[in-house]
Design goal:
Blueprint lengths: L5 E7 L4 H11 L5 E8 L5 H8 L4 E3 L8 H15 L3 E4 L8 H6 L4 E5 L11 H7 L4 E8 L9 E8 L6 H25 L2 E4 L2 E4 L2 E2 L4 E2 L1
Parallel strand pairs: 1-2, 1-4, 2-3, 4-5, 7-11
Antiparallel strand pairs: 5-6, 6-7, 8-9, 9-10
5-O-phosphono-beta-D-ribofuranosylamine (GRF) binds next to helix 1, strand 5 and helix 6.
């Protein structure tokens, strides 16, 4: 049976290399998705230009245009709803979303976080992993819940840390893995292999009790 493409909205704040990986996967037929919207809190985000280049609606929604955080969250929530997306994909989106927005998209919002969660929630993950002399670092794709970087993890890619790694070299290898696993997880959603059921993730018809690791 052929499924309809998954409608997705992508939120970016910066470079948008993960967005590009999703666009490339869809163009190559590896991801059955239709991009309904790319939005950014930063009008100068490279990700917006990537979206425009691909003929996708690109919208800047800077918090400074709104009287307060609640108004900005409400505007973003309306924008996402009106886009008709089935799934919201956070791809390097650097703002914390309000509780009502997160609740509205429960089980339908994914994030990529550059660490092996639950290790290193928050910022500067590569620096912290190096400081702790971790032999292995990596990146995680997870469902977004109200707890920052705390939602159920779906898939993680592990990256061996080299003795001569810098924050930059490690970040580069971690990102390369993100570009593989993020389109993969979005495709799992698109194909119906991955779903949110009874308040948690299910993969291939079974509760996903622990993240898959590659
Ligand atoms: C990624 O490394 C992601 O893990 C983190 O921000 C970075 C975004 O990169 N949340 P890009 O904008 O997709 O290039």
């Amino acid at each position: 049976m052929n499924r309809a493409p998954l409608g997705i909205a992508v939120l970016v704040s910066g470079h948008g290399s993960n967005l590009q990986a999703l666009l490339d996967a869809a163009a190559a037929g590896r991801l059955n998705a239709e991009f309904r919207l790319v939005a950014s809190d930063r009008p100068d985000a490279r990700g917006l230009a990537r979206a425009r280049d691909a003929g996708i609606r690109a919208v800047a929604i800077p918090p400074s245009d709104y009287p307060d955080r609640a108004a900005w969250n409400a505007a973003l929530e309306a924008l996402l709803r009106e886009s008709g997306a089935d799934l919201v994909v956070l791809a390097g989106f650097m703002r914390v979303l309000g509780a009502s927005l997160v609740a509205a998209w429960a089980g339908r919002m994914l994030n990529v976080h550059p660490s092996l969660l639950p290790l290193y929630r928050g910022l500067h993950t590569h620096r912290r992993a190096l400081k702790d002399r971790q032999p292995v670092h990596g990146t995680s794709i997870h469902f977004v819940t109200e707890e920052l970087d705390g939602g159920p993890v779906i898939l993680q890619a592990q990256v061996a840390v080299r003795p001569d790694d810098t924050e930059e070299s490690l970040a580069q290898r971690v990102q390369a893995r993100e570009h593989e696993i993020y389109p993969q997880v979005v495709e799992w959603m698109a194909s119906g292999r991955l779903e949110w059921r009874d308040g948690g993730p299910w993969l291939d018809g079974r509760p996903l009790d622990a993240p898959r690791r590659v």
